[in-house]
Amino acid sequence: MNVNLQSFLNRRAVFFTVYCHRLLARPPYSLSSRLSILQEHASPSCLPEARELHGLLVTSGLLYSSPAVLTSLISLYSKCSSPTAALAAFRSSPTPPNLFAWNAALSALSSNSLPEDALGLFRALRTMPALAPDRFTFPCIVKALSDLHDAVELRKIHALLFKYGLESEIFVSSAAVNAYLTMGYVIDAEKVFEKLPERDVVLWNSMVNGFAQKGQFVEAKQYFDRMLEQGMVPSRFTITGILSVFTSTADLNCGRKIHAFVFKMGYTFDVAISNSLIDLYGKCHSLEEAEQIFECMLERDIFSWNSMISALEYSAENVKALHLFGQMLHAGVQPDSITLAAILPACSQVAALSHGRETHAFLLRHWIKGDVFADNALMDMYAKCGLLQEARKVFEGMPKRDVASWNIMIDAYASHGQGEDALRLFSSMKSAADDVTLVAVLSACSHSGLVQAGLEVFARIEDGHFGVSPAAEHYLCMVDMLSRAGMLERAKEMAGMAEKAVGARGWRPYMAACKERGEVVMAVDAAERILGREQEGSGDWVLTANAYGWAGKFREVAYVRGEMRRRG
């Protein structure tokens, strides 16, 4: 059924395209209607038609005889992702543009990632005494300042709102709230919000989504609850925002309540909401529910496929993920870097090297190059399949690298016992090392017997050379390294230092090393240190019983076994 439906949707899209072209081919008397039709359904692919229509508007004289036509043309170019053409049309007007045209030009620049140009145009507008900025002007400039992270200018613009009597305008206030939250000025955002006499759903969405995007999930949930208490009906944007909160916190129960609300409100067929629900259930390992939503979707976009593939990969259903990727290609959906970053780990987990190579070929064929996320996943896939040379080729060919790129390659050398290669790469590292980097380096030293190098790296961590403090995993690596090297006294000292950070875990590799080297007394001493320290699981109790058994203390073995039975 889904295949037939997809075929119908494709035919409908073709029919609509032909219909639009026929309308756009009418005589000059319908230029205004042609402009309206094209603007309503504009996309970057419509730019040639927009340019053709622009020429007809100029030759017919309609463009400059009607200010509304100029404004519509600027908006059309903006929707076609051509802010340069929009600005050229704005500046080519023989008469001074009205405020609507100024606002359209500001929107074209700010919505197409040209914040500095938008700021410059706004300053030019301020030199026009006859044109006072209105409630449509300020959201554009506020967004531009948010993109520039210019808090000083934002506060100046905020002050201007009072001058023009717009401080209580919902549309403008929502933009200001978003900007303050984006830049991390939470108190300013809350002040703007609380002082407003009336609040619409857009403003509530700004608070819920703003805190959600900052990772302040408790605050986002609080504003969502307040919104409901005040009788405000959540919109589709509210739903996707709060679902992202429950996804990040793995709150499946609350997520299911939102799902029920979605069903009640008739939002079931909204693609963005369905994608968010798939993401929620996928992150909570409820694959059956995620698959049900995916199968019931009447329309799917790239995010739908990515969400479902990522959900399968997240739950280690790697074969299913690869199968769904094949279906995606068969449906004619073009993968992006997110798709590939989900598929490549699946290839490495099932050792499907042929699929990994095909994906690499796809990257090269479609010239998806320079995407760090995809390149990292490709490098990780080759490393986990044991092809270190291929992984290094990807690493060397990356035009950009982040800290994860270095971490993946260093960890690959560490995992394959090539400690010296890992250290050489670490010493040439261009990005600032983080906790993961240092764990990989210490692990490489441990598995390759490079004790002195490991001690030097750990000493630099303790001195704050890398800007991070010693963490649990660093201590565990050091205990493991010293234990493997037979330096039991140093290992014992390190395990004692690690107790506050890692609890009993630091003693386990030390105890295993004691047993291996026949140091029974030392093993028993370590066993008695960890006995009962961690309540969950039976691992420490088993280790303690075994240590007593090695030492021939069978009465103590019986006591530990009895205590294990008593505690269940």
From TrEMBL:
Keywords: Repeat. PPR repeats lie at residues 200-234, 270-300, 301-335, 371-401, 402-432. GO terms for biological process: plant organ development; RNA modification. The keyword Repeat applies. Pfam families: PPR, PPR_2. GO terms for molecular function: RNA binding. NCBIfam families: PPR (TIGR00756). This is Pentatricopeptide repeat-containing protein.
